[in-house]
Write a structure and sequence with these properties.
single chain, mainly alpha, membrane
Length: 47
Amino acid sequence: DALLLQLTNTSAYYTYLLLLLKSEVYFAIIAICLLRRTAVCCNGERP
């Protein structure tokens, strides 16, 4: 039972870590897109 509990906790931890990493990647992509769009607008050009 102890091994099963440890395995469950480990899998839950890695699932949480994976979701956190995924959200960070999405956030980085969105931030880069917004910064590029803002830079284009600031230069006076239309996107």
